[in-house]
Write a structure and sequence with these properties.
- The chain is of the alpha+beta class and 114 residues long.
- 34% of the residues lie in helices and 14% in strands.
- A 3-stranded mixed sheet has the order 1-3-2, with no helix packed on it.
- The longest helix has 23 residues, at 59-81.
- It is elongated, with a radius of gyration of 23 Å.
Length: 114
């Protein structure tokens, strides 16, 4: 028995849910404008059994997946910038300043070409 009915948009990273499933959700990071929760477990499946579906990720697996995606994003950004990025993803600009490619260096080069 459920005393009230609420609708929440929930992130399901492995597409393991089916319409009619009763699930437990937990707050997670923001996936889109309205999606702020993630599936923690399927309490009562509707249709195919739970072991016939893709497994729901645990909290540790979700955090690890997010960390891996974030590190890949930092590496892509580092490749585009050509600068030094510390372990937290912050561009400290040391490498560009040493090579004369900082903001001032770019302005001088552009000014010289005109």
């Amino acid at each position: 028995y459920f005393p009230s009915h609420e609708t929440h948009l929930v992130h399901d990273p492995r597409s393991s849910l089916r319409t009619g499933d009763i699930v437990r959700i937990v707050p997670g990071w923001r996936v889109s404008k309205h999606v702020r929760h993630v599936v923690a477990e399927i309490v009562a499946p509707f249709g195919p059994r739970v072991d016939e579906r893709p497994r729901v990720l645990s909290e540790e697996e979700r955090e690890e997946e997010r960390r891996v995606k974030r590190e890949a994003k930092v590496r892509r950004r580092e490749g585009r910038r050509g600068g030094v990025v510390d372990g937290e993803g912050n561009d400290n600009g040391e490498e560009r300043e040493r090579e004369g490619e900082g903001e001032e260096g770019r302005r001088r080069e552009v000014g010289a070409e005109i």
